[in-house]
Amino acid sequence: MPTITEDRDAIRDLAARYCHDFDHGNADGVADLFTEDGVFDPGFPGFDALESREAIRAFVGSLTAGTVHHMVTDLAYDIDGDRATGVASFLVTAGTAIVTVGRYQDELRRVDGTWRFVRRVAESDPA
Description:
Elements: H1 4-23, H2 27-32, E1 34-41, H3 53-61, E2 69-80, E3 83-94, E4 97-111, E5 114-124
Parallel strand pairs: 1-5
Antiparallel strand pairs: 2-3, 3-4, 4-5
């Protein structure tokens, strides 16, 4: 069984891979960071929650790679065995403009030894 330090490091890596894969248009990579029944709610008006790996893959694949840059910080997760819940602050830019800032509310599960998102909800700060 991994130590709490190893789990926290793996969760930080999961969050970083999400940003890099999303920004580079790696739809398969982003989808694989979620459980099979994973849910991603982008939190933008007009965008519904995506309720499967396939829906997440299609959404990311529909976007133009390289147009946004995600950054996450202040990750704080509570780990209980093979489950974790937590929050991470985010900043999304396009070129030199800030698109949005806010927090991800996350539910995670370890599947076959790998941490994955069960549910990721983006909550943007008010403009």
